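Q: A reviewer asked whether we had any structural model of the full assembly, not just the individual parts. We don't, so I'm hoping you can provide one. Inputs are below.
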Amino acid sequence: SQELEQSPQSLIVQEGKNLTINCTSSKTLYGLYWYKQKYGEGLIFLMMLQKGGEEKSHEKITAKLDEKKQQSSLHITASQPSHAGIYLCGADVANAGGTSYGKLTFGQGTILTVHP
Amino acid sequence: GAVVSQHPSWVICKSGTSVKIECRSLDFQATTMFWYRQFPKQSLMLMATSNEGSKATYEQGVEKDKFLINHASLTLSTLTVTSAHPEDSSFYICSANSYTEAFFGQGTRLTVV
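A: Here is a predicted structure for the entire assembly that you could use as a starting point for your response.
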């Protein structure tokens, strides 16, 4: 099975609706990153979570990391067409010493479409 | 946050030629940098770990003789795609860590014709 599972693969919502994207790791994480990407373009950093139970918010986007540091969710409240794009989670898997390898394993991505 | 600069942003080359992509950490030193590749409609996959002053570590399935990595200084890693073919057309992106946080370059879109 995949080391990092991201779901759903695609999401179509009506403007104003809330939505959640999930990312689950089979290993304990040192950190979990969320990015947004437009097709063919670079990564737009959204948030990085490192502590178990941590929650961060920026504008209408909230990301959480569970206490076990293996699962994260990204929640968008009152979605807008500007939220459309590809959302990627990137996992920094902890090494045996509990620290970072530095490299990220990415989820498969979620394509978000927001209809006006 | 820290800044990682990647150049060029896009490049078109003829089949059989070589292309060099640069990745620079602008305001910090990076003994290790990472190179990723993203094919159309797919996610990012780690290609190799670039180590300053020593050989790069390649992921399984990545040809080290085709993707030459040089990390000659603490702020610069280069990826050279040798004898490029159309199947090498992809989005290449690098990252480096400042303290415990990863920072990504803008990416390079390579098109081989």
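A: Points you may want to mention in the reply: The mean pLDDT of chain B is 95. The interface with chain A takes residues 1, 32, 34, 36, 41-46, 49, 91, 93, 95, 97, 100-102, 104-107, 109 of chain B (CB under 8 Å).
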